[in-house]
Amino acid sequence: MVTGDTNLWDHPFRKESLQNLTRAMWVVLALLLALSSGALSLNKLNMCMDAKHHKVEPGPEGKLYLQCSPWRDNACCTANTTAEAHNDNSYLYNFNWNHCGVMSPQCKKHFIQDTCFYECSPHLGPWIQKVDQSWRKERILDVPLCMEDCHNWWEDCKNDYTCKTNWHKGWDWSSGVNKCPESSKCRKWTEVYPTPKSMCELIWSNSYLYTTHSNSSGRCMQLWFTGPNPNTKVAEYYLNNAQQHQSFALTTLLFLAVGSFSLWIY
């Protein structure tokens, strides 16, 4: 019979049950970390954005057009999308590259390659963010570009002209294609983008992040490549880093929570 002076928490059976509960919580923690890590890898290392022209899932596309052909073994784009990526004012976005006079061929080839990368790459998962826009539900943010890609792009466009810093917004679309807004004027490329860094980061609302990594470093994404896609390993590197930070943060929080619970019952 239990008297009024008995401390229920000190009862041996009660204490043993709580100790077993603590051990069970640690097991659940380990399982949660393992499952979340595995799910993250499966989802983000080979996926397509939820956007206007992207396929639902990546896969082979044997007839990708010209500059998009490097992605033919595993692509988020279709052959029709890649053909349109090479056209002026294509149906993809009705975007006019020639808004400040005719864009030079050497500059335009980088925008075609940029379009191929955006539409076709299945390895952008670590940088995909949810958005609420009429033409897409997801976008990329701060994709680390190799230094050579940014510098070559800027160098080949430096004698061209544009009227806007951020090409994602602020255009006059009244004619159905983008035109410079009335308040703007066409300026030389180097006035709008003084450095390769400013161009790569500002032109598409920080979709890209300028880095000082070279294309042989395995730490930056390449717009241009031949042979096996080198961006697979780069995405894996950044995803693993993100998982390690996430796992550390989650482990720390749960360790503190379980530790506090353990001290309380003991």
UniProtKB/TrEMBL annotation:
The record's annotation in Pfam families points to: Folate_rec (PF03024)
* Keywords associated with the record: Disulfide bond, Membrane, Signal, Transmembrane, Transmembrane helix
In terms of domain of life, where is this protein from? Eukaryota
List the Gene Ontology MF annotations in alphabetical order. signaling receptor activity
List the transmembrane segments: 24-42, 247-265
Instruction: List each coiled-coil range.
Output: none
What does UniProt give as GO cellular component?
A: external side of plasma membrane
Q: Domain Folate receptor-like: where?
A: 47-222
Q: What family name appears in the similarity comment?
A: Belongs to the folate receptor family.
| Name used for this protein in its record | Folate receptor
Annotated source species: Seriola dumerili (Greater amberjack)
Q: What is the lineage of its organism?
A: Eukaryota, Metazoa, Chordata, Craniata, Vertebrata
